[in-house]
Amino acid sequence: MRIADFRVEIWMNRWETRCRYNLAETCVDSVTVAELLALAGLDTADLAAELAPMRLGYGAIEGSDRLRAAIAARYDTVTQDQVIVAHGAIGANHLVYEALVEPGDLVVSVTPTYQQHVAVPESLGATVRQVRLDEAGGWRLDLDELADAARGAKLLTVTNPNNPTGALLAPDDLAAIAAIAGREDAWILADEVYRGIDQDGPGTSPSFADLYPRTIAIGSMSKAFSLAGLRLGWVIAPPEVLEAVSRHRDYSVISVGMVDDLLAAIALEHADAMLARNRAIVRGNLAILDGWVAEEPRISYVRPAAGTTALLRFDAPMSSDAFCTRLLETEGVLLVPGSAFDTDGVVRIGYANDAAVLTAGLERTSAFLATLGA
Ligand SMILES: Cc1ncc(COP(=O)(O)O)c(C=O)c1O
To answer: Are residues 290 and 204 in the same domain?
Structure first.
């Protein structure tokens, strides 16, 4: 199977361990096992008591009942038999595309997005039509354009909250997208890995899974729950899709690790505490970023509404690759070039990591910008 290079992953793999200030990370500042236990009101003895008698076979193939019930509880209408776990959201997305997409299918992808949602369906022989969010309109989705593009589509794929822009679809937009998909009898693949850390309001906005019956919703422990080390994601879908996903999953997953399953269940059973911590981080850190953007004449942006990332537009006569490479070489600050999202003149920042690293990295970026002259 031929597939395009995954540009953001290649860039991250190359640089994330070789920079001083990582402002490219998309997870909310990861927690240690001890911090997870503290947030859950447990201690290491409690965990040891759960782990010691655990017989390390393959475990529950589709994910333990305990974990799948805790995942289902993140939605209003989902039951645990609609949940199957996977190796991260990346594994979950991949399985869904393998299970549903055939050569000649039309897939509509709202972009910019995580490149998986374009490259994988293309590699499976689908035609992928991209509907781009409009930066001038605040990364707005043009619903008429989506409706046109969706004619004859088998699957619409939307990342909400969006990576890289940090845009969040309003409830009316969700309903309109569902209506467009409904007219085509199309599936919606909703990648919702950043759900739960909105900047405003209660912090968790609605899932497509609770709005539209032909939804496949993807979630993960990595981003909003800051537990990427568990490598645990999930698929929520109606039975016919779960069956197809399971058929493919038997060849590439079997099951996820039992220890990962247990730790994910503990975290999700204490989701309120985990998300309260993480919302405080994304909200506090965005205030830092916002203040910096306001003071930097060469930088402008659409303030993100949710998630962990934003696109910074820079005023400098160079490509986004040159900008990021020079910034890394001179100041050790890691951002992601917009070219990885087919959007030049911008760089992606991940602002949800350690606040001290964010502050120092932004200071070094200012020093770099000051060298660029008039
Ligand atoms: C939109 C989106 N989906 C999926 C993933 C993969 O996440 P996971 O760590 O759960 O595999 C990422 C990672 O950056 C992402 O941004």
So the answer is: no
DSSP state string for 4-50: ---HHHHHHHHHTTS-SEE----SSSPPPHHHHHHHTT--HHHHHHH
Domain boundary among 207, 242, 270: 270
Task: Please give the structure tokens belonging to residue 252.
Answer: 């590439």
CATH of the domain at 305: 3.90.1150.10
Q: How many CB atoms lie within 10 A of CB 288?
A: 14
Identify the band that residue 173 occupies on the pLDDT scale cut at 50, 70 and 90.
very high
* Closest ligand 1 atom, residue 26 Cα: 14
Model confidence, pTM:
0.98
Output the pLDDT for position 1. 84
- Report how far ligand 1's centroid is from the alpha carbon of 30 (Å): 14
At residue 265's C-alpha, the angle toward residues 273 and 263, to 5°, is 90
Total number of domains constituting the chain: 2
Average pLDDT over residues 233-252: 98
Range of the domain at 77: 55-270
List, as one string, the DSSP characters of 120-144. HHHHTT-EEEEEE-BTTTTSB--HH
Residues at CB less than 6 angstroms from ligand 1: 26, 88-90, 114, 159, 163, 191, 193, 220, 222, 228, 233
289: DSSP letter: H
